[in-house]
Amino acid sequence: MDDSPREACGIFGIYAPGEDVARLTFFALYALQHRGQESAGIAVSDGRIAHIHKGMGLVAQVFNEENLAPLKGHLAIGHNRYSTTGSSQLRNAQPYLIESYLGPLGVAHNGNLVNAPQLRRELLQRGVGLTSSSDSEVITLMLAGAPGETWEERIMTFMRQAYGAYSLTVLTRDAVYAVRDPWGFRPLCLGTFNGGYVVASESSAIATIGGEYLREVAPGEIVSLDTYGLHSRQGLPPERPALCTFEHIYFSRPDSVWAGRVIHQVRQALGRELAREYPVEADLVVPVPDSSIPAAIGYAQEAGLPFNEGLIKNRYIGRTFIQPDDHIRRMGVALKFNPLPENLEGKRVVLVDDSIVRGNTSGPLVRLLRNAGATEVHVRVTCPPIRHPCFMGVDMATYDELIAHRMTVAEIQKYLGCDSLGYLSLEGMMRAIGRQDGYCNACFTGIYPITLYEGQEKTIFEDVLAS
């Protein structure tokens, strides 16, 4: 019922003496809920011992007053999960919290290590036991067993061995660390809060708790948050920056800021570029809610066409554990979207979407608009065709599942049943973002910033165990 790419997760960390850090982390995770809805967790430290609570489901389903109360301390990390390595099970929920030689260690991870199978084998060969099928547990145990008398030394050792995408918040007895891979694949930013410091996947989470955004964590940087303040060191030299373009297209909240630009503004610019590249005679511009609304506004402004809602989204249908029966399941996309016939009747409609991954939603949406009275449906997409999978922390299908890998644009148009189909060019997309480099566009181009290793399937570790 959802054809958009799925994010890996959202992470958060805070050092705030005298504050209820567990409650603050709860609200920050609430602001990051869009990044992952499978599980949530919070780990805290009071300078002596650490406590944790995590579970399956949304933040508001996992936490309540009763289980937040024992999470006392002045240091905390939190995590919302969408699985990319390791299936959606409680054993793969984060943060991970273990006891190590240097004391408690908690880890929350956003990303995907492309050499995780090799690192996992090395741990097993050393006799290290594993309880999950996630590369995030591999990271935790690598940090716990790395040589070094300080956590910074151990983090640097891990960074020299890890290869791929990782933004981390790391909880120790007396500090929170923020760590970002040398390419900066996954987002991570810093802020202040009432004399303390916070780190989050997006600036919107910092704003939600009343913090002040400072800057992004630089690729390859290690930042420590503790009683001595905020300190930074370069764990590895930065590589050529490769932030995932989909942070601008789809993942980030519209009120988040990247490279000094509010995401809502960038998405409007994507829509304007799309209108310039693929104009069409039409009566109405309609977004696929919610992420495509700013782009549809931009398209309508540039094209001089009216903007209106044509689809109403049920925002909760994909976030329930109650499975639909066969009759409801056959209704397909109607579970998630209802049309507004009064706005569509007799209209030539431009339908703006952020992306088409598998093609399992766009076709039914076109039919939904036609059945509601639209005389023409012209689909416009705010990014180029997605022809290649992602291996850096986004669950973006396999080659066989990607419709643009199997079909030409003309074939996709026929498959969707729309009157015309236009994808934004790579050049137009980067113009809208405002930069021509510093981003990963491998899913469009097939040019990966890093060398890929052995099979990267989501359930690779579980498949090994099953065999």
Described by the principal axes of the CA atoms, the overall outline is elongated
Number of domains: 2
Helix proportion of residues, in percent? 25-40%
Calculate the terminal CA-CA distance, rounded to whole Å.
31 Å
Structural class: alpha+beta
Beta fraction of the residues? 25-35%
Q: How many helical elements? A: 18
Mean pLDDT: 91
Strand order of the largest sheet: 3-2-4-1-10-9-11
What is the name of the CATH superfamily of the largest domain?
Answer: Aminohydrolase, N-terminal nucleophile (Ntn) domain
State the gist of this model.
With 467 residues, this protein is α+β, with helices and mostly antiparallel strands. The strands form six sheets. The chain has a seven-stranded antiparallel sheet with strand order 3-2-4-1-10-9-11. The chain has a six-stranded antiparallel sheet with strand order 5-6-7-8-12-13, covered by helices on one side. The longest helix has 15 residues, at 263-277.
Structure write-up:
Residues 458-467 have low confidence and may be disordered. The protein is built from 18 helices and 23 strands. It is of the alpha+beta class and 467 residues long. Strand 7 (164-171) and strand 8 (176-180) form a beta hairpin. It folds into two domains: 9-240, Glutamine Phosphoribosylpyrophosphate, subunit 1, domain 1 (4-Layer Sandwich); 257-445, Rossmann fold, CATH 3.40.50. Helix 9 packs across helix 10 (293-303). The radius of gyration is 22 Å and the shape is elongated.
